[in-house]
Design brief:
mainly alpha; two-stranded antiparallel ribbon; 30 helices
Length: 630
């Protein structure tokens, strides 16, 4: 019987793990550290064979913990092993960060069942219909927005496979390009906040989830932008791969009022509406015209509201009450005794000595940052970045209104019913986290409530929908919690056996620079993404890398952003490319798995490019956390 290519690939990978492990293991005199490395290799092989990850970690951890304790005290080995299991499980269950996981997952399932994705895809396609490869670009934009709201990769890929793939194939798009767009866009949810991956990494590395969310925002947008740029370039170079939509597909039916105001011509919206409101255009109801004008001016109102909120946040001056503190170097007024001479020192002499000891040489330039200038209203000046971003948005608004016609106003109204409710929910959740108004758990609870309101607004909040969402949330949360329990037991066993110490000594013996270590770590994670899923990489291998970061003076926050960007490959790399299998399950029969894999390869190359850009320009990920949390 011939084995399939996937099985040959999997068995080859397992052989590459098992054979070197057995070759380098000193079987005649195994130390506890070698048992730790053997446990690590066996866990990877067992997971590749299809055993459940959480229970494999727990089983291996318990078995090798017993081996470690038995070598030192056989009589207490069983009791100590069971005590370790209980302590590690209790430590995971009392981790407050993990409370946000079920709430974000519940929000995602509710938003998914609100049936917003079809309206969102259609409105975005009409909005960018003149861009080369507009259907694929709209698919990527829809995936990015929807993945941000749900974070559930399987749901986004499956829904877009049912909605966008038939539309792109019908329009004559290349099968490989279409498959790559859907699979790559669907995986953005593990990077763009609110991401469950970032929560798990934060809990594993003891890094602030709030700062991780702020740091991952721009890398996620950058990656989505690179995907879209690639699609536009391919559509320009190979128009037969992504044909422009026909004029009939870009046609938008105007309302009677819009037809009356436009007179059948592509007139600008604002002058026509202002004329109708002022009564200069006969036969047009002033009330209806005012309503349309209000809708047309919503972007201006949104910009004013957003700018006001951000300005208030960045200019707020926090006053710290120091009335109960004593100045460093100050002393009480009582006399004291000199320790060397034993002579009593009067208070005046003691103050002069303190003044000379703690005085600052004014002739030298001050190294400390100057205190912010506070106005009479108790505010600091807004940073230059705020005014630059505000100017960019104002310029975009001017361009928008200069080219806005009644057809585009109709598209804008379609987006009001699909894109903007979702965007407001996302911005409310992320904004409350990034600006410090709420903890991730509180923001997740607010997001879950917003998801219920959104489902109710679209008349999808039924008992069956809530029941199914709660069931799927409980199922996903149980998986995450069991993974953490297994990871915690496994990490404790690995440290107990001394495996971490052997790896640290080996890495430090290589005398690598921080750059070389970073490249090696990211290369290992990239390779691990081929046979393993991101959850397994986070819970198994991050506890091995994290203790080494201090030796190389690497910020765990920056390392986490690189890992999150790198782990996009876990969903796009065969043989465990789950995004490909999700899409294959809903794709037409003539779309083969090999075509889907081939379509994903260029997007994997784009992910590597994005990883290099983030490494070369760290401010892409660190600028926003540094601005908000200085």
């Amino acid at each position: 019987m011939k084995l399939r290519k996937e099985l040959w690939f999997g068995f080859t990978l397992m052989a590459l793990i098992v054979i070197p492990t057995l070759w380098f293991m000193p079987l005649s005199h195994m130390s506890q550290g070698h048992y730790g490395l053997l446990m690590l290799a066996l866990v990877v092989v067992a997971i590749m064979l299809g055993f459940p990850t959480a229970f494999t970690l727990m089983g291996m951890g318990v078995l090798f913990t017993f081996v470690a304790y038995r070598s030192s005290n056989p009589d207490l080995a069983v009791r100590q092993t069971l005590d370790l299991m209980v302590q590690r499980a209790y430590a995971v269950m009392t981790n407050d960060v993990l409370i946000a996981v079920p709430l974000f997952v519940f929000m995602g399932y509710l938003v998914e069942r609100a049936n917003l994705i079809e309206r969102l895809f259609k409105s975005l396609h009409l909005a960018i219909g003149r861009i080369p490869g507009s259907l694929a670009v709209a698919t990527l934009a829809t995936c990015a927005v929807f993945a941000t709201a749900t974070g559930i990769i399987g749901a986004v890929v499956t829904l877009m496979g049912l909605l966008a793939l038939p539309a792109m194939l019908k329009a004559g798009y290349n099968v490989k390009l279409s498959a790559g767009v859907i699979t790559a866009g669907g995986t953005l949810g593990i990077l763009i906040p609110p991401s469950v991956l970032l929560i798990l990494y934060g809990a594993t590395a003891s890094v602030s989830v709030v700062q991780l969310y702020a740091g991952a925002f721009f890398p996620g947008i950058m990656l989505a932008g690179l995907y879209m740029g690639y699609v536009v370039v391919v559509a320009k170079l190979k128009p037969e791969w992504a044909p422009l939509p026909a004029a009939s597909e870009r046609h938008i039916e105007l309302s009677p009022l819009a037809r009356q105001l436009s007179g059948g011509q592509p007139r600008r919206t604002l002058p026509a509406l202002l004329g109708a409101v002022s009564g200069r255009q006969a036969g047009v109801p002033a009330g209806a015209a005012r309503k349309q004008l209000f809708i047309a001016l919503l972007p201006v109102l949104a910009l004013l509201a957003g700018a006001g909120i951000v300005y208030n946040a960045v200019t707020a001056h926090e006053v710290v009450d120091t009335s109960g503190l004593q100045e460093m170097g100050s002393f009480d007024d009582g006399p004291s005794t000199d320790e060397e001479s034993g002579v009593e020192v009067p208070p005046e002499a003691k103050k002069e000595e303190a003044k000379s000891r703690y005085s600052v040489d004014r002739s030298r330039p001050r190294e400390a940052a100057a205190a912010p200038v506070v106005s009479e209203g108790g505010r600091v000046p807004a940073p230059l970045a705020f005014w630059i971003v505000l100017a960019i948005f104002v310029l975009l608004l001017v361009i928008l209104y200069a080219y806005q016609t009644f057809e585009r106003l109709e598209v804008f109204k379609m987006m009001l019913g699909s894109f903007f409710p979702l965007a407001i929910l996302i911005l409310a959740v992320l904004g409350s986290i990034i600006f410090g108004w709420a903890t991730p758990t509180e923001a997740a609870a607010m997001g879950a409530g917003g998801g219920m309101l959104l489902a109710a607004a679209y008349r999808r909040l039924t008992f069956d929908v809530v029941k199914e969402s709660v069931y799927l949330t409980a199922k996903t949360t149980a998986m995450v919690c069991w993974l953490f329990v297994g990871s915690s037991i496994f990490s404790a066993a690995f440290a107990l056996l001394g495996g971490q110490e052997i790896i640290e000594k080996w890495v430090l013996s290589l005398n690598m620079t921080p750059t070389q270590f970073m490249l090696l770590a990211q290369f290992i994670i990239f390779i691990l993404g081929w046979p393993l899923e991101w959850t397994e990489i986070i819970v198994i291998f991050m506890p091995i890398f994290l203790p080494l970061l201090g030796h190389f003076h690497i910020d765990p926050l920056f390392f986490g952003l690189l890992v999150a960007l790198n782990l996009q490959t876990a969903f796009l790399s065969p043989p465990v490319a789950m995004a490909a299998f999700y899409l294959k399950g809903v794709a037409p029969p003539h779309v083969t798995l090999n075509q889907i894999f081939a379509g994903m390869m260029p997007f994997m190359a784009i992910q590597v490019l994005a990883l290099a850009l983030l490494y070369l320009f760290p401010e892409i990920g660190l600028w926003l956390p540094g601005l908000v949390y200085k």
